[in-house]
Amino acid sequence: MKRAALLVFAAAIAHADVAQLPPPTLPTLSERLANGLTVIVQEDDSVSSVVVHVRYDGGIADEDEAHAGYSHLVEKLFFLGSVHVKAGEVEQRIDAAGGFASSTTDADRVSLYEQVPAGGLELALWLEAERMAGLADGITDAGLAAARDAIAAEVRAAYEDEPYALVDREVSRALWPERVDPLVVPTPTRDSVRAYVRERFVPANATIAIVGHVDAARTLSLAQTYFGWIPGGTRRVVQATTVEPLHQMVRRTVAAPDPKIVVAYRLNKLDAEDALAVAVGARMIERAGGGHDADVQVELVRSGQGGELRITARPRPGEDLIKDTSPITVIADRLGSTDPPSDQVRAAAASLDRDFLVALEGLTYRADALAAGLPIDLRRGELRMISPEQIKRSAAYWLAKTASVTIIGIPEKR
Amino acid sequence: MRAVLVFALVLACGPRASRPPPSATPWASSRIDWSKPPAIAPTPLAVPPVRELSLDHIRVVVVENHRLPFVAVTAVMTTAGAREDGMKPGLAALTAEMVRRASRGRIETSIASDYMTARLVARTEDLGREAPLLADVLRDPAYNVDELIDARNVRVAELAEHHARPRAVAAQVFDRLVFTGHPYERPAEGTIDGVSTLTSEDVRGFLASAYRPDGLTLIVAGDVDDDRLRTLTKPFAGWTAPAAPAHPSPALAAYARRLAIVDMPGADHAVVIVGRRDATDPADRLAADVANTILGGGPGARLDHTLHDQLAVTFGAGSSFWHGQLAGSWTVASTFPTARAGEALRATLAEIEKARTADATDEEIARAKDELSRAVAGSFETNAGSERAVERLVAQGLPTDWYTTYLQRLAAISPAAARAAMQTTWSDLSIVVVGDRAKLARDLTRLGLPIEQYTP
């Protein structure tokens, strides 16, 4: 989640077009193969490892009712065997090479990635190419059952065993009533999943970012060798959606293990014009509520399908936030009606800039950002030029009380 | 023959409706050998220089990295750890929290048995403006009594939550077993009883005695040069240590193996810790690390192979060393379903005994050394990683060139040294189990040790 939050900032900066500060410049090459696969390679000789990140466009927000939960299911299936690779073999081989493999499913993508010592680059490319070409044919009934079991276990862990995620699920439902539940256990047939994979998980719908101790030109050539022969499929153009704030205020109560209050707002998409102003505003809320007060968290998440801001608080002894949530929204409320002080804006922007620099150190973050189409040669200048007025305007639009969702988790009496 | 032909036709014309359409994937056209993945090429590894100097009478350890324009600083105060608490468990932790609050969240603090840390991250361009904050909050943190009461209440609530976490409970009971009578037996974050009674006078007193320049090391990683280092140390100039020395910790009592259970009736899983107090000399530490990596270094190591891959009784099993300034410990920690906890514990003990009595293969030793080399080199790829690595060095009192000579020293570890470490490190094991006693008692009784009952 934190990574996603940082991506927001990358998006915001990527949109900037003003002054340029000394950027972290690293040689980056990009090429679209004949089959439609986009390959991005960034050299960084200050590290000894490499990250290979394969992003398939389309995620949870792109599912219809008939395919609810398929993105998450396919993410699991990628580790449960393909034509030449057995179930569990991807992790075993990457572990044995001294790396790690992981994956994620979000509103707008399914990503698979691994970090290996530089000498393991070809192994990672071989494994990713094999499962890109061979997943559909490699899906078995046993694999499908194992994927469903894994998701069911996640659902149990999140909502039943220790149901800490119930409040967050309710926030998602209230914010995005048009979306399917992100943690649903689908029960598809093998053929329907195969058809889904063949349609969506194809080179034309994918980007591969390779970041680390590599020779960029040689790596592009390797990518061509391993991925260039795979039939490209058809690029799915995801319907552009317009994100707007909610048109009504929502307030609900759910049972939860601990008392917890979440106030949330819809936000604009990754590439929206006011993304940077919203990010600075969110940081101002965080600094006001977070720094001194350990019990308030501010989380900013955004994808190509729209984002959200969540302010989460756990009541302190003697504090009744359930009756009155204003202590945690006072800054958000104020931002939309009053120009914030310039020095606070500057401090929040500097804090955001610093965190972004810190995030840039991580290869997995950089590969993720590159695969999402966010340029790494940052133009940090606009961040310094965000004005109090821009923040007020964006906050008034996105963080209005009338567009907020408040979900209150109350412990059940036992 | 005809019968065979008919049977073959039936097979070929079988229920195709349930089969997927034939694949159109042109594997052959790829000209890639899909029968086996490519071999892994050797990866050159390096550790950057770690430099130590004294500026404004403050010890500074530096790892320069000019790739990105920011600096990360960790102040390590080896006189302000939890073992300095005296009779007020939790005082060191609450004091570190008040330091954090005094910075208005700009500085993160943490507490360990032997030291506290305060961490500041700043863009290079902001260093001059932000550096004084670190000195300000370490020398004289500003807070009021209401803030302290609030911090104390929050901490008590957190400690109460810890009691519901079996792994945290198991770790605390393990420390009570192997460090009995020593400050290491207490959790660094304190106890509810201890924290509840802390006052502002206690915190002020601890600040005055334990926060001192002779206990301070600044670890600096990132975009720094000597001028910027002086920017960091200058605000500490003129800080003098109090006359009274930090009080010494008592000597450790002799170690003996013990068995303890924390009863959690109805628990469907049991947390198990197996281990002992460790006194490996730093000179022998690398050989012990190689041995530990073979046994419990993670996926592919012996414990994980047996408990996860073969028996499927856990999501993962591993072992690790903890090295303090005055002593250390070695532990295997895992979680097993209650119904199979006895079987899993026996398998764990058998695997440890096998490691003591049977040789590791040359391949295992080579793989472990390779893994350790990569881990050390990889930890210096980010400023945060460099800080953590050097923090261990400072906390354990290791020489500054520990990491810069690490790869060379590791390469020199002979198979015989690794095998000797395996055979000598893991005897007289103590065991802690947090779970349903009624269902576990029979298996634990078989271990032949008196069972001690603990409460969280």
* Number of domain modules of chain A: 2
Q: Give the helix proportion of chain A (percent range).
A: 40-55%
**What's the CATH topology label of the largest domain in chain B?**
Cytochrome Bc1 Complex, Chain A, domain 1
Compute the gyration radius of chain A: what is it?
Answer: 22 Å
User: H/E element string of chain B?
Assistant: HEEEHEEHHHHHEHEEHHEEHHHHHEHE
Q: What is the 3D form of chain A?
A: globular
Q: For this structure, what is the CATH homologous superfamily of the largest domain in chain B?
A: Metalloenzyme, LuxS/M16 peptidase-like
List the SSEs and their pairings.
The complex is a heterodimer of chains A (414) and B (456).
Chain A: H1 2-15, E1 28-32, E2 38-43, E3 49-57, H2 70-77, H3 89-96, E4 100-105, E5 109-117, H4 121-138, H5 141-161, H6 166-175, H7 190-200, E6 206-212, H8 216-227, E7 250-256, E8 260-267, H9 275-291, E9 296-303, E10 306-313, H10 326-335, H11 342-360, H12 363-371, H13 381-385, H14 388-398, E11 404-411
Parallel strand pairs in A: 2-6, 7-11
Antiparallel strand pairs in A: 1-2, 3-5, 3-6, 4-5, 8-10, 8-11, 9-10
Chain B: H1 2-12, E1 51-55, E2 58-64, E3 70-77, H2 91-102, E4 108-111, E5 116-123, H3 127-139, H4 145-162, H5 166-178, H6 192-196, H7 200-210, E6 216-222, H8 226-233, E7 259-263, E8 269-278, H9 285-296, H10 302-310, E9 318-323, E10 328-337, H11 341-357, H12 362-379, H13 383-395, H14 406-411, H15 415-425, E11 430-435, H16 437-445, E12 451-454
Parallel strand pairs in B: 2-6, 7-11, 7-12
Antiparallel strand pairs in B: 1-2, 3-5, 3-6, 4-5, 8-10, 8-11, 9-10
Helix pairs in contact in B: 2-4, 2-7, 3-8, 9-12, 9-15, 10-11
